[in-house]
Amino acid sequence: MSIEVSPRVAVLLSRLTAARANKLDNLDALISSRAPAATALSNLVWTDERAAKLDNLDATISSRAPAATALSNLVWTDARAAKLDNLDATISSRAPADTALSNLVWTDARAAKLDYLDVAVSTRAPAATALSNTVWTDTRAAYLDNLISHETAGVYSHPSGTTEQDAVVITPTELSQYYKLVMDLSALTQITYIRVYIMTDGVNYRQSDYAEYPTDFPTGTKNVVISLLPTAKAIKVTLQSAVAEGVARSIPYFYVRKSEA
After folding, report:
1. pLDDT band at residue 112, thresholds of 50, 70 and 90?
2. What is the dihedral of CA 195, 198, 199, 204, to 10 degrees?
3. Which of 26, 91, 115, 208 is least enclosed, having the fewest CB within 10 Å?
4. Distance CA 16, CA 12 (A)
5. What secondary structure letter does DSSP report for 121?
6. What 3-state DSSP class applies to 225?
7. Within a domain: residue 198?
8. Distance in angstroms (rounded) separating the CA atoms of residues 241 and 161
């Protein structure tokens, strides 16, 4: 007696082989009881070395010995291990390594310069270098001096009489800029003639200006300001009383000079 089956059932029966039936039966077996199949996975991918690494996952980190690999032989060196050990040492206790840093970069000269930082700047003598011998010359030092203006001050004693007297005489030794002469004439009680002379030819004084005090000045003027020219020629200012003062009079004055040489 034959049983007719549908075409779909026939296809299913053709695909259900004994090997496939055994695999279905194996679904009830414990995973731990299954032996690995002799496949490419167990022979190539699943190796004893990889299994050992998995076993090592349960070991504490501190108990693991470094593998004899490129890491321990090349990257992990004794020198690097010593540097790690040195992390616990205080900075002040560390001796400089005998390296290019200590021999080339860290030199006695540079160390001396660091020591020099504690010395007050004012106590440091200029080094005998190109700066002091070549760049810093007496001529250049003189130029710096010329940038500084100098004030000359004094007191002229004007005698009692009617003779013309030299009050202020300026005899430059070099070309200089003069910033006006200021004379305090408050002590004078009589009309006084003021004259300015310049030794234009280098030998003879020639009058260049004239005024009467206090007639030619604003009422109440006590300080007379006399303009002076930049020059290397001698200049003088004289005073002459129209009527004798009777006693000597003190005339304070000052002027400012700056070298133009």
Report:
1. confident
2. -30
3. 91
4. 6
5. G
6. strand
7. yes
8. 7
Q: What is the CATH number of the domain that holds 161?
A: 2.60.120.510
- Residue 237 corresponds to which tokens in the numbers above? 């200012």
228 touches 211 (CB < 8 A): no
Number of domains in the chain: 1
pLDDT at 114 over 80: no
- Local structure of 49: helix, strand or coil: helix
Domain-located, residue 238: yes
- Considering only residues 232 and 32, tell me which one the structure prediction assigns the higher pLDDT: 232
**Contact present, 240 and 167 (Cβ < 8 Å):** no
**Residue entry with tokens 């540079």:** 110
What letter represents residue 46's amino acid? Answer: W
Does residue 84 fall inside a structural domain?
Answer: no
d(CA 190, CA 215): 10
Res. 40: pLDDT tops 70? no
Closest CA to 191 of 151, 241, 131: 241
Task: Print the domain residue range for 212.
Answer: 150-259
Tell me what percent of the chain is helix, strand and coil, each rounded to the nearest 5.
35, 25, 40
Instruction: Name the residue among 242, 233, 252 with its Cα closest to residue 167.
Output: 252
**Would residue 190 count as lying in a domain?**
yes
Question: Could you tell me if residue 58 is left (phi over 0), alpha (psi between -120 and 50 degrees) or otherwise beta?
Answer: alpha
Q: What is the pLDDT of residues 189-212, one digit of tens each?
A: 999 999 999 999 999 999 999 999
